[in-house]
Specification:
This protein has one domain (12-68). The protein has 3 helices and no strands. It has helices spanning 14-25, 35-50, 53-59.
């Protein structure tokens, strides 16, 4: 099954929800003083949520992104 998306349609793309979550939460761990700190924070946050099934499933619960969920 293939889904064709418009060239830019953030509300239909679950990755945009992940991006929003990272932007909101990745820098809460420690302050960012340089680009390396930012990269470390992002990697730590993504590693932290990687195995959090509840959080990952929530990215696909929106009506706009249900098409991409495994049923």
């Amino acid at each position: 099954m293939k889904f064709f998306l418009p060239p830019y349609c953030p509300e239909l793309n679950p990755q945009e929800l992940v991006n929003q979550d990272v932007k909101a939460n990745a820098c809460l761990v420690k302050p960012v003083r340089c680009v390396d700190d930012l990269l470390i924070n992002i990697r730590l946050y993504l590693t932290k949520i990687q195995f959090n099934e509840f959080k990952i499933f929530n990215f696909f619960k929106k009506s706009e992104t249900k098409y991409a969920a495994w049923d």
